């Protein structure tokens, strides 16, 4: 037991001594997973009866997986510049209106490729434990297949978009000078997404933009090797 504690202490001391210095290079990757569900709550106040009616409808959100290899270097002590190439798959239950005006269930399957670049600052909280807030910018392209349950039709869309995020809940553990394990649990995100449908008769495009705080919404885990 004494030997194990001695080895562990030596590793922590070595990691603490290996501060992120200008010129250090790293490679690694991040793996993300998210799933969402909740309830729609509608409140209607009747002025005649002076009563409020509440309707609650549960919904099942989508499931998404992402994998993003990453590489970069430290442009100055404790300031990391990185670039990541991401691949993502997501499924989302949805509905659409057919030609008769009926609401029909469907499921969307998205495949996306993304490229991002950003900076993170390494602030040592404890030996081998760093708080790593950051600022990232990126864009993505991809495709969506809408599988309609009634009739089995599959409708194809084209996806594109840009985004920016502020990583506020990011940490990294460095058990050795060359190995790091990271977790990013959320921050502020701005995105601009476009969905385009195009065939020989009809072309339509829908663009959405928003800002949100993704606390524990899209958690990513990562590993990095430092040279």
List keywords for this structure.
13 strands, 227 residues, globular, mainly beta, 13-stranded antiparallel beta sheet, Porin
Commentary on this structure:
It is built from one helix and 13 strands, in the order αβββββββββββββ. The chain has 227 residues and is mostly beta strands. It has one domain (2-226): Beta Barrel (Porin), CATH 2.40.160. Strands 5-6-9-10-13-1-2-3-4-7-8-11-12 form a 13-stranded antiparallel sheet.
C-alpha Rg, in Å?
Answer: 23 Å
Give the low-pLDDT segments.
11-17
User: Can you give the helix content as a percent range?
Assistant: under 10%
What is the name of the CATH topology? Porin
Total strands: the figure is 13
Q: Span from first to last CA?
A: 31 Å
The structure class reads mainly beta
- CATH class, named Mainly Beta
Strand order across the biggest sheet? 5-6-9-10-13-1-2-3-4-7-8-11-12
β-sheet strand percentage? over 45%
């Amino acid at each position: 037991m004494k030997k194990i504690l001695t080895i562990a202490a030596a590793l922590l001391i070595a990691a603490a001594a290996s501060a992120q210095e200008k010129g250090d290079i790293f490679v690694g990757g991040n793996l993300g997973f998210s799933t969402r569900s909740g309830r729609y709550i509608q409140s209607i106040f009747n002025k005649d009866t002076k009563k409020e009616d509440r309707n609650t409808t549960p919904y099942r959100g989508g499931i998404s997986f992402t994998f993003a290899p990453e590489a970069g270097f430290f442009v100055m002590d404790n300031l990391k510049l990185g670039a990541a190439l991401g691949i993502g798959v997501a499924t989302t239950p949805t509905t659409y209106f057919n030609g008769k005006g009926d609401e029909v269930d469907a499921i969307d399957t998205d495949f996306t490729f993304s490229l991002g670049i950003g900076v993170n600052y390494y602030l040592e909280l404890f030996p081998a434990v760093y708080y790593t807030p950051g600022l990232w910018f990126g864009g993505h392209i991809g495709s969506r297949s809408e599988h309609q349950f009634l009739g089995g039709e599959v409708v194809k869309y084209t996806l594109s978009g840009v985004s920016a995020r502020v990583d506020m809940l990011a940490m990294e553990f460095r058990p050795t000078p060359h190995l790091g394990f990271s977790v990013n649990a959320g921050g502020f995100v701005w995105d601009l997404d476009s969905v385009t449908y195009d065939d020989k008769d009809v072309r339509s495009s829908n663009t959405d933009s928003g800002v949100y705080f993704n606390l524990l919404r899209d958690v990513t885990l990562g590993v990095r090797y430092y040279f």
